[in-house]
Amino acid sequence: MDKKGRIITEEAAYARMARVCSQKECAPFDIARKLRRMELPELLVDKIIDRLKKEKYLDERRFIRSYIHDKLYFNKWGKRKIILFLKQKQLPQGLIEEVFSELPGESFGESLKPILEKKWKSVKGKSDYEKRGKLIRYALGKGFSLEEVMACMEKMKIGEVFDETE
Questions:
Q1: How many distinct structural domains can be found in the chain?
Q2: pLDDT < 70 positions in the chain
Q3: What does the alpha-carbon distance between residue 31 and residue 54 come to, in Å, rounded to a whole number?
Q4: Is residue 2, in this structure, part of any structural domain at all?
């Protein structure tokens, strides 16, 4: 049933989900959740999702590739955070790793340096040690590994170069 209490047919539900999928990339998990909110039986939900996959409205690989691109370039997230959110969408771990392996490895490190440089200017702390700790926590929260953060900070010589400009 929809919001007004009408019973939704299989074709109407399929048409709605096809329209949603044609407007943006969606994960099968998200589409299944929308169909369940329409109070459709689980067998029908699976049938509609299979049909959407067969007709190329849903494609997990395409969704993962799009999601990684958007979060990497627009949100400036690190690999760990992206993987966490893709797992929440119940996508196969093997497929996630496969798509990540297609990407150039340096694309994650490239986005970290400008993030750290910008954040360093706004970090408040009593000592350089405290400011570095806050910067590390910030970068970890963005999904970068500790090794990446420390290597980038070492290259940038954070705490030395930036203190001269203040």
A1: 3
A2: 1-5, 105-109, 158-166
A3: 15
A4: no
